[in-house]
Amino acid sequence: MTGWDAAGGPRATAGEPVEEGCGPNCEQALGRLFAYVDRELTADDAAQVRAHVEDCRPCLDEMAVETMLKELVKRCCQEQAPADLRLKIHARLTEVRITRTV
């Protein structure tokens, strides 16, 4: 499925060509992009993705979007829930556990 980038142009989701002319190498690189950004690839696989995006502007742009998205989520999820909310959730989870074990 193709999405839209900040400039209003088409942006592919992982595993899809970014633009016409992208071929199997782009599909392979984009298919492993999330794992690359999360540093979950082997050294060899990471080197292959890195080599591809260094030579492919559309894939490099897609990697930049995924990296920015990851950083945004990280920044937005740093706040802790208020103590009273955490206590209510903990109490509810305890209640559910007790109910299911009885």
Automatic annotation (TrEMBL):
Domain spans labelled Putative zinc-finger: 26-59
Protein name: Mycothiol system anti-sigma-R factor
Chain positions covered by the region annotation Disordered: 1-22
Superkingdom classification of source: Bacteria
NCBIfam families recorded: antisig_RsrA (TIGR03988)
Organism field: Cellulomonas triticagri
Gene field: rsrA
One Pfam family from the record: zf-HC2
